[in-house]
Amino acid sequence: MSTLSADTATRKADRSFLPASQSRLERLRDGFHQIRKFTSSLCATLEPEDCVVQSMPDVSPTKWHLAHTTWFFETFILKKFLPGYRAEIPEYAYLFNSYYNAAGDMHRRDLRGLISRPTVSEAQRYRASIDSHIDDLLSNAGERLLDDVEPLLVLGMHHEQQHQELLITDIKHVLAQNPLYPVFRQRNGDVSAKKIAPIQFIDFEEKVTEIGDDGDGFAYDNEGPRHRALVPAFSLATRPVTNGEYIAFIEDNGYSRPEFWLSLGWMTVNEQRWNAPLYWIKRDSAWWNFTLSGLRPVDQSEPVTHVSYFEADAYANWAGGRLPTEFEWERAAMNSPIEGNFVETELFHPASVALASDFSAERPQQHRTLFQMFGDVWEWTRSAYSPYPGYRAAPGALGEYNGKFMCNQYVLRGGSCATSRTHIRLTYRNFFQPEKRWQFTGIRLARDEA
Ligand SMILES: [Fe+2]
Asked: According to the model, what pLDDT value does residue 189 have?
């Protein structure tokens, strides 16, 4: 294992997981257990058979997520800081390393579904064992050791939250392959026609804007350095694009009109034979979609989700707009509260946009408000995922966390219904290749200055 410096991928320890009234030790220990427990709770309705399937190379089996997040704490904390620590099963280091070349060799990502051993219960035992070693380490740690361990532990907690989201989107893809359409979480309520508020655009003047992490709390290294960016005048939609609006694009033959598509997107649509977002199927001329609560009629008032960058861009062209840049998004969201439909609501699905009946004539400012900037669906931006000016990935294994992926991907902002509320930030940069659709990805339109 190469050198791991505590300040590699983190800036400052997060204080937001638990109340500030607790001691640092209590806060770390409770925050750690709370996040580990939440991962387990996500698996409560899954059977072992569900937890071993890999439905495509991008998807990891649930069992792998359970073990890989555990490997992270073992590799980057216990092996370095717990005196005399010896891995019970050293081969796990090979099986559960994801992509950290500096931490050693690893098993092939696309073959994770072929690994029947360790079993799911052995993976759970691995989790329990590492958790108790972390407890031992923390309970005997003095302030100086805590100074070293805290940034790595906090990074490990954020890493686990990222994998909680992947666990949810991966199990959705797994269950979607099953013609029985298994239910991950029961949800009541019918889909009924609702009158939604029309989309509005808010104008923003040209401005030199401070972009990126301001150093106040945890951030990934890719959110810095903070720098100034000129953001020309633009306007941004008050809410995400809905399923109903997206159906209008489909019905206008959006998927078969090359004029709306990037060349690579057009190639992909034809090769993949896409004619709707992922998980949509047409039955008796009505659209249905597979959700984590089973197969349901498409609700026209919900933000459209599971669309690729190519589809988001084509829709925007069809609608006479464009996708925002990540700088426009960050500038616009600066005053938006970080609240919304996150994983904590346990809906595991985007919630409806505001209905016409939610607006009152006495409060005209409602029409000038940005809704659902955080939660529900990740919003594709037209910004390539590239380093901010002055960015340098740190040396060592944890320097591999973000920097080496800055090629051929696009930035998404705002988090989704599968993201933790304590994980997302204004400056958070998610990134995926433009053809990926299995995350909760959606569309918010922007326009150039009128
Ligand atoms: Fe990971």
From this structure: 73
